[in-house]
Amino acid sequence: MSAYPFEKLGQITAGINAGLTLEDILERVYQDFRGVIPYERIGLALVEEGGWARSTWVKSDLPEIHLLPGYRAALAGSSLERILETRQPRILNDLEAYLEHKPESISTRLILQEGIRASLTCPLIIEDKPVGFLFFSSVTRDSYHQEHAAFFQQAAGQLAVALERGQLVSALARQKEQIEQQNRDLIRLSELKNKLISVAAHDLRNPISLILSITDILMGPDAHLYASEQHNLLDTIARQAQHMINLINNLLDISAIESGGLKINPAPMSLDPWIEGIVQEQARLAEPKRTRIVLGSRCGRRVLADEARLRQAIENLISNAVKFSPPGSTVRLELEQIPHFCRLWVRDQGPGIKAEDRPSLFKPFSRLSTLPTGREKSTGLGLAIVKWIAQVHGGEAGVEDNPGGGAAFWMTIPLVQEQ
Ligand SMILES: Nc1ncnc2c1ncn2[C@@H]1O[C@H](COP(=O)(O)OP(=O)(O)OP(=O)(O)O)[C@@H](O)[C@H]1O
Ligand SMILES: [Mg+2]
Description:
Blueprint: H1 6-18, H2 22-32, E1 41-48, E2 52-60, E3 72-74, H3 79-86, E4 90-92, H4 95-101, H5 106-114, E5 118-126, E6 129-138, H6 146-219, H7 230-258, E7 267-270, H8 271-286, E8 292-295, E9 302-305, H9 307-323, E10 330-338, E11 341-347, H10 382-392, E12 397-401, E13 407-414
Parallel strand pairs: 8-10
Antiparallel strand pairs: 1-2, 1-6, 2-3, 4-5, 5-6, 7-9, 10-11, 11-13, 12-13
Adenosine-5'-triphosphate (ATP) binds at residues 250, 316, 320-321, 324, 348, 350-351, 353, 361, 366-368, 370, 377-384, 407.
């Protein structure tokens, strides 16, 4: 270093003071000290409560960084503690020799692996309070001299204050981001609640009106004219009531899922015989539409699942396959063992899923371009619940094109890891 670079010092302190966040300031340090102090790497460690120094930031021209942010070491008894006591920068001009002398120094070992051979460690102190260290490191032995340390000391006070301010600004920015995220979540939740209420009001009104008109008939003066119809009318009431219960349950599920309040209780269970029962039940329900439901390959292993929620997901996939396929078609279930999971397939012979429908398929309230083929109800909640059930079990849900036409929906369920 030639004549004392006062101009450079002015530039450095101006740069440091202009930086807003911690990262800003350190970027400027990395650029501005060039030419006055040699380095290929600069690191910052901050003093943490409890007597720790934690590596917080590092920038390097070298291809590999081994001593990464997050690394922390106790100050008590360390050489860093002595630097804080003397308040003087420390020069180590031969780190290999230093490590031989102090083989327990993990940080020295790590920077040696990066290719560093000499270091200048500078304490950062504000009004007697140690706030951290700035480490200049060079790949060339004997890089550092007293004049480098002296130069750093000129900027040290301002740098320490700026870094503390920068830390505060960075923390505030993080808090702001968190609050904005919470705000976005709240707005989304509130929109969802409005949607839930409007769907509930709209989709419950029709069945209730229908039930009321039937009860009017059955209790009215002309009831005897409908004596032969009585069974059918009561059947309609029962089906409408069942639909309303399903709808309310789905709405409550979606609301609980979105606000994070729905939990599952997984337990080991055998899939194969259990799923045969579901297929038989669903086949009976699909009889009016003459849809066949068949079970192909089995899984042969136990899964870890919440039985009621898994049933809900499978019934949803099967009822969709029946609902959106033409009458008289076949729905095929298959179980497939893949690493760590059993994959359940529900294949149908319907129109399949159009490319433009795919992005919103598993989102709540997505009634898409494919409509039910037998006047079934459609609210657009089933697949969102299926996806949640798969994910909360640690699996996934998705859809592919069925090779023979139609849709092939799948979900994965974790296998019990048997010894
Ligand atoms: N097997 C399928 N074949 C073709 N389209 C499908 C199939 N399954 C779902 N879809 C389309 O995806 C949309 C969303 O399905 P989802 O199960 O979420 O709702 P839904 O069946 O309409 O109503 P809900 O399940 O709430 O009674 C459906 O409205 C339909 O357009
Ligand atoms: Mg559905």
